[in-house]
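Request: Mind sharing a record?
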Amino acid sequence: MQILLVDDEIEMADPLSRLLMREGYVVDVAHDGREGALLVEQNRYDLLILDWMLPHESGLDLCQRLRSRGDTTPVLFLTAKDTIDDRVQGLDAGADDYLIKPFELRELLARVRALLRRPATLESAPDLRLRVDDLELDSQNQIAYRKGRAIELSEKESQLLEYFMRQPNQLLAHDQIFQHLWSDGEKPMSNALAAQIRLLRRKIESEGEPPLISTVYGKGYRFGGGE
């Protein structure tokens, strides 16, 4: 597997490249966006790891340019930008994943392995996002979108919403949902499911928006019907 790492901080790029090579990857390193773009033109890479802020051409601009011409090489952003708006901007530019500095090296390696396992085809992209009514979920990055606003989700909220969205307009019993969210080894409070539902509703159902989660009293919940 061949990786291109583009980062202008030499004190970060050098140890990262050595770490990746010790894991068995072939790594090219560039220290500015223009050099990175030239290497992309000259070589075929299985993964691009891009710093956001780069001299000459930002990682964001480089990613957008690649996507505009149909290049589906997986892109992992490394950046100190950590607001939800920054994350949304990076993902909308075509990034596949986003890692905020400082980060644990083992998390970086895990994300690299995950991206290299993913088929790099545009045809697979629709499966990465779910849409029901006017709500869209990017479960990979735990972000939902509704009426132009981005909604950051916790891991459990994202799992719950994905479970709902894969079975729209169906009655899902309390036990079904509970077993999906918590493994046998976990021992949540008896009201844990109701609490998760309340938290999720607050995020995806703003004032004036049609409700998406309906309670079927004594039985469970049904998702959908927001438009």
About this structure: The longest helix spans residues 10-22. Residues 134 and 146 are 6 Å apart (CA to CA). The two ends are 45 Å apart (CA to CA).
